[in-house]
């Protein structure tokens, strides 16, 4: 049912885009701007709507022949180069670390195990790879190696991947919470055997929390699907919508993303706190660490969404500020916050303070292979993890939680 509703939403948005694209005049004004050098869209007002990174060489805005790199009143070229170098290097390093983490997971857990945990890793794997390639070869198409529209669409898709990554982390968090509560539930069952056992939490609370979490995940999955639909619509709207109403659509997308991250933050913060409050301190260390890190991701992403609105040059909120200054400032903040969010997600799966363990030779050492040996080791896994850091068993344990 949800899949069918998503398909209807996508078709509706595409139909709207095509209908807008067919309108070539507004108030009797005939377009005279041609193809805008293929770096923008000729609007029905007779002016060009240039893609980010491109500017008109005339006051009449009938072309998109120049780029921000050619500005003489602002040092845009060195600023762009420094941003490209920083973004390329950091995303490349993150991509290598994520690749290694996925390799270890595949080696010790298999390709089909821990699918939920892999989801968020695969999302930031794709986002860092795209950001690395995009900035290594071009910047909004101004260097001519990637078309401006392709750069625009890929840049927007990275935001979708980050939303999907957070959704994946929420599902991973729910799994961790459920596993912890099931462990507590087993302890509660000891009351039937040992009357002197002191309960840490009631069975009623455990059942309620597990039932609630089965519903809690649904909105996050639905919002991720809607965000993907908005991105698909955006791919059609950007090149085809020629009426001034594009400004409304553009603002809607930015406001939508801010609402998404804001609602994610409120819902996860409120219900996450309530769920953790009924969990005993002795069993909630791991889940609390993940919770705090997810709150950091939410904070970073919310700041990014807000900055995209405040520093927007197409629909300026800060009047009087040079549009090109807004451009470089907005994307400097945006790309750095995206990298920070990806780093925190990676840190949840592979703590960066323990990189030596993850890259040690012991991590790849073959030991205790065979089904019978794995079964015999399962009961003593926790003791081995504590006493033999860096062994295969520890890495395997980390990939499974």
UniProtKB/TrEMBL annotation:
Taxonomy, superkingdom: Eukaryota
Q: Region labeled Disordered — which residues?
A: 366-401
Residue ranges, compositional bias (Polar residues) = 366-380
Keyword Transmembrane helix among record annotations: yes
Q: Where is the composition biased (Basic and acidic residues)?
A: 385-401
Specify the signal sequence span. 1-21
Keyword annotations for this protein?
A: Membrane, Signal, Transmembrane, Transmembrane helix
Protein name (Swiss-Prot/TrEMBL) = EGF-like domain-containing protein
Say which species the protein is native to: Planoprotostelium fungivorum
The UniProt transmembrane annotation reads 81-103, 115-134, 154-177, 218-241, 253-273, 294-311
